[in-house]
Amino acid sequence: MRLGGLQKMTLLDFPGRVACTVFTVGCNFRCPFCHNSSLVVSPALPELSQDDFFAFLRKRQGLLEGVAITGGEPLLHPDMPEFIEKIRALGYAVKLDTNGSFPERLKAVLDAKLADYVAMDVKNSREKYEQTAGVPGILPAVERSVELLRAGETPFEFRTTLVDELHEPEDFAAIGRWLAGVERYFIQGFVDSGDILAGGDAFHAATPEKAKACLEEVWSCVPTAKLRGIE
Questions:
Q1: Which range marks the domain in which residue 160 is found?
Q2: According to the 3-state scheme, what is the secondary structure of the chain?
Q3: Which of 41, 75, 138, 184 could form a disulfide with 157 if both were Cys (CB 3.0 to 4.6 A apart)?
Q4: CATH of the domain at 181
Q5: What does pTM read for this prediction?
Q6: Total domain count for the chain?
């Protein structure tokens, strides 16, 4: 397990919990709009030791309620279940973020009831998935992860980061048909962190008007869908 950083408190990353967020190093996707590119491609990234991380958690017992695990792609690490078990042993709830490309590892986490909440990225419509994720051949695994979450008992959400150059309202109509009937789906605003994988000024946030048009395309199949981080 490689850890690339720690946000010591968040009220946003874990719904209903006061939490911290820990970042894992490495990702198998190459989304060109990724805002954490140093976690994806930088081997020289300063890392956080597990000893320091768990020392932090022990000091915050009774103050924090949960740990959000994000990346990178957390399930890239085969020892993720053991890592989560150590967090839970200290009394913390766990939220897991994933890109859905490791369905069997996700299934192991779900079957063992290790996660209290899962947030899975849905990068785009099926037709544009590989272009948006930056790698070929990953759609079947993503589809399997969608099925696992929908069939399971763990609370979850799906979310799509809306990038002006990569998404159109008709893409969200297709996403809505794919995810029809789910309880929690969010369209998130793209933010240029200055650490974008593609570099330069290649990608931009969509206008609020376009975001609303995309949301309206989803509503016929997912009437509870919402915008997040878009005013």
A1: 3-228
A2: CCEEEEEEEECCCCCCCCEEEEEECCCCCCCCCCCCHHHHHCCCCCCECHHHHHHHHHHCECCECEEEEECCCHHHCCCHHHHHHHHHHCCCEEEEEECCCCHHHHHHHHHCCCCCEEEEECCCCHHHHHHHHCCCCCHHHHHHHHHHHHHCCCCEEEEEEEECCCCCHHHHHHHHHHCCCCCCEEEEECCCCCCCCCCCCCCCECCHHHHHHHHHHHHCCCCCCEEECCC
A3: 184
A4: 3.20.20.70
A5: 0.94
A6: 1
